[in-house]
Automatic annotation (TrEMBL), chains A, B:
<dbReference type="InterPro" id="IPR036052">
    <property type="entry name" value="TrpB-like_PALP_sf"/>
</dbReference>
<protein>
    <recommendedName>
        <fullName>tryptophan synthase</fullName>
        <ecNumber>4.2.1.20</ecNumber>
    </recommendedName>
</protein>
<dbReference type="GO" id="GO:0030170">
    <property type="term" value="F:pyridoxal phosphate binding"/>
</dbReference>
<dbReference type="InterPro" id="IPR023026">
    <property type="entry name" value="Trp_synth_beta/beta-like"/>
</dbReference>
<dbReference type="GO" id="GO:0005737">
    <property type="term" value="C:cytoplasm"/>
</dbReference>
<dbReference type="Pfam" id="PF00291">
    <property type="entry name" value="PALP"/>
</dbReference>
<dbReference type="GO" id="GO:0004834">
    <property type="term" value="F:tryptophan synthase activity"/>
</dbReference>
<comment type="function">
    <text>The beta subunit is responsible for the synthesis of L-tryptophan from indole and L-serine.</text>
</comment>
<keyword id="KW-0028">Amino-acid biosynthesis</keyword>
<keyword id="KW-0822">Tryptophan biosynthesis</keyword>
<dbReference type="InterPro" id="IPR006316">
    <property type="entry name" value="Trp_synth_b-like"/>
</dbReference>
<keyword id="KW-0663">Pyridoxal phosphate</keyword>
<feature type="domain" description="Tryptophan synthase beta chain-like PALP">
    <location>
        <begin position="81"/>
        <end position="418"/>
    </location>
</feature>
<keyword id="KW-0456">Lyase</keyword>
<dbReference type="InterPro" id="IPR001926">
    <property type="entry name" value="TrpB-like_PALP"/>
</dbReference>
<comment type="pathway">
    <text>Amino-acid biosynthesis; L-tryptophan biosynthesis; L-tryptophan from chorismate: step 5/5.</text>
</comment>
<comment type="subunit">
    <text>Tetramer of two alpha and two beta chains.</text>
</comment>
Length: 459, 459
């Protein structure tokens, strides 16, 4: 039985993308501009310089340059762990008995354990280029913190990571990996910042949140000389860097003479989803193809499926610029029983706009269903997925099962963003049967919506 | 600055080996035959059938078939995670300032985290083919147990893993990964076997050892209907399966028009080392090339560098056949402060014979030096290595530094067997400065040698 399509397709170094793709250049309508939190007017690029590295601030604001050269040093770094394979899920297809063809782009085969390294190395590179002498960031599940620690260690840039306290306590080994790469790890909220002190004074026992850790990291950056803040998701610049996932995927599929009918990604802040779908969304925007594009988010933190499309702060401390996005309110705290990442209250403004304009779909899935898919997948494909990635697996399996019912041989592409080696506590809970689902009530969500910022003339 | 050699070379599926290479077929002198522990006479293949799957027992005894076809199903499984990349360590070379060219074959990019899956899937396949209904094994650091759990889950073969108790307690997440793949994990020594009961009665607080866990797994196999025992190292069959590492490496180097002057592997029981060096050792045996081949073992468990070349049991309970190998004595217990694997008292009989006959060198390194190399490597190459693998890194770095002194541009190939994600406790100890070295005294070793089995007419 000849198999024309290999199990794993790796591009050669020559085939690797030399430019990132900026999806905004092809959007018919742009995402709403971010607002300066002081003036409530659209922020200028200069206003971002105190917080962001200049080159990254420029990328953040650039909605017209379609392709942006990847600096050669970053290309060289990419070559240490990329190209990532495009994998044909032969065993998963067989186990499901589906006529669908399932492909996944696997970004977990690097020590950071996820796709986050794609943007981390770019951000560290530009920071070094500008002559910055340290960086700050936050991390929740720990993938971004690990990736940035690796990148900063490579460029010998001191890094302070504010790690959401509940994660800091539950994942001591994540912390150790980051420390191996010389990062300083501070559980958030902490007494090292004013905003941390304030949040602790309100609730000394809080487990923290991403939004809160962002506030602390930003404060530390703006109060430290020659230091800036970097973020691993949500931002336009991050989606730009992560476009390498989609560009490689599309090229690999072209080599296989394939094109996806459905593209599926997990969605927290949007870094992986935005990167994976970028060139396929381009085709859709330009009328060249019409793949279905599906965001899969956790039912416990359902920003796209149940959030408001409104201006909101990117952090809990309300110090960042405001972005128009699907949001649950910047002080939304996902249930403590929610395992893994995808806990952010908002969603990438680019993806929010595309979703709002009908270019993509979104579904929310419960975590026991996600872990069911994770374990099933692991047994067929021998990769233990990160809980975040398993949201996309759940979506792909469900679409493949629909194909089984209808007999359609659709081509499904999903993003497998990372591995779950640091998430065994959550796997244990699933295997022991102690994992439960949590879905916020409408009343829960309403409280967050009521606290959305009031902006005269806008909302 | 053009780089002819890519950072990572992946063979295509077409280029992947379709046969394993059996090094014994080219050895001028064979390893001494294994002995039946009852008769102290050379064991027949039939005598192995109660313990081993028949096909594997035949492979164990086959010293003449040079190439053995890899069954198509195993080839297909290999394609899920192989070929593994041959990586040019550009950054490591630069950081060391060495003229040496350093290559490493990276086997850690699969969920088992190491090269162990190469033999695990083969052993599970042959067990399934024979109609066996369950398997037993032991695991120390956990890489073999994880790999076999994955392989058995794939073939829906129930598996019982006796996990060295100290490891069971120190690495709860390793256990969880194996449980995710449906394996039953029992801390060893346990009350589930007679040998376990006996060892516990002598020392109820023992942390266990690989040799002891082997005894339990063998007892469980021979007392359970339609069940057999499988082992992840030491055996000839394991080196056969692991030859895929060396075959792929050699082919990749040929594509790059390279040949190693030095081949370096870490050595515990010999599974990785034997696989990596196989085709290069063939060249050496046939007089086609003369690479230096270096085994790197821990100073705390120095079987090659300080052991006796003698017949010994493969397990602590003295129930297995006897093999002639470099050994520290079958009841040797490595210091509890020794982190990671490479704790076995003996060494592959094939490698022992080659070492004894002068075809390879061996060095022993202290664990703080190993972790120093591990952290240095991680920062340059962005891969967090397993402590076991870091022994080979240490060896490669030291050879590269010698090249720096002499100005020689030697080509070094080493095996990076796996990742250290489940070894963060050990990394913490190193980073905290609490890791210490342990080197057994001559008196310590002498005790083990005195207890080597007495075999009339032989030793």
């Amino acid at each position: 039985m000849p198999k024309k399509v290999p199990h794993r397709l790796y591009l050669t170094e020559d085939q690797m993308p030399k430019q990132w793709y900026n999806l905004r250049a092809d959007m018919k309508e742009q995402p709403a501009p971010i607002l300066n939190p002081g003036t409530l007017q659209p922020a200028t690029v200069e206003e971002l310089y105190p917080v962001f590295c200049e080159k990254l601030a420029q990328q953040e604001m650039d909605s017209t340059t379609r392709y942006i050269d990847i600096p050669e040093e970053i290309q060289d770094f990419y070559k240490m762990y990329r190209p990532s394979p495009l994998i044909r899920a032969y065993n998963l297809e067989k186990a499901l008995g589906t006529p669908a063809k399932i492909y996944y782009k696997f970004e977990g085969n690097n020590t950071s354990g996820s796709h986050k390294l794609n943007s981390a190395i770019a951000q560290a590179y530009y920071a070094k280029e500008q002559g910055l002498t340290s960086l700050t960031t936050e991390t929740g599940a720990g993938q971004w913190g690990t990736a940035l620690s690796e990148a900063c260690s490579y460029y010998k840039l001191p890094l302070t990571v504010y790690m959401v306290k509940v994660s800091y306590e539950q994942k001591p080994f994540r912390k150790s990996v980051m420390q191996t790469f010389d990062a300083e790890i501070i559980p958030s909220p902490s007494n090292t910042t004013k905003v941390g002190q304030m949040i602790l004074s309100q609730d000394p026992n809080t487990g923290g949140s991403l939004g809160c850790a962002i506030s602390e990291a930003v404060e530390k950056a703006v109060t430290t000389e020659n230091c800036r803040y970097v973020l691993g998701s949500v931002l336009n610049q991050v989606l730009l860097h992560q476009s390498i996932i989609g560009l490689e995927s599309k090229m690999a599929m072209e080599i296989l003479d394939e094109y996806p009918d459905i593209v599926i990604g997990c969605a927290g802040g949007g870094s992986n989803l935005g990167g994976l779908i970028a060139p396929f969304m381009q085709d859709k925007l330009l009328g060249k193809a019409n793949p279905r594009i599906i965001a899969v988010e956790p039912a416990s933190c359902p920003s796209l499926t149940r959030g408001r499309y409104a201006y909101d702060f990117c952090d809990t401390g309300r110090v960042t610029p405001l972005a128009k996005m699907y949001t649950l309110g910047c002080d939304f705290m996902p249930s403590a029983n929610h395992a893994g990442g995808l806990r952010y209250h908002g969603m990438s403004p680019i993806l929010s706009k595309l979703y709002h304009d009908g270019y993509m779909e979104a579904i929310a899935v419960e975590q026991t269903k996600v872990f069911e898919a994770a374990v099933f997948f692991a047994k067929q494909e021998t990769i233990l997925p990160a809980p975040e990635s398993a949201h996309a697996i759940r979506g792909a399996i469900d679409e493949a099962l629909k194909c089984k019912e209808t007999g359609e041989a659709k081509t499904i592409l999903f993003g497998l963003t990372g591995t779950g080696y640091f998430d065994m506590t959550a796997y244990n809970a699933y295997l022991n049967g102690t994992m439960t689902d949590y879905i916020p009530t409408d009343e829960d969500l309403q409280k967050g919506f009521e606290r959305l910022p009031k902006i005269p003339g806008i909302q």
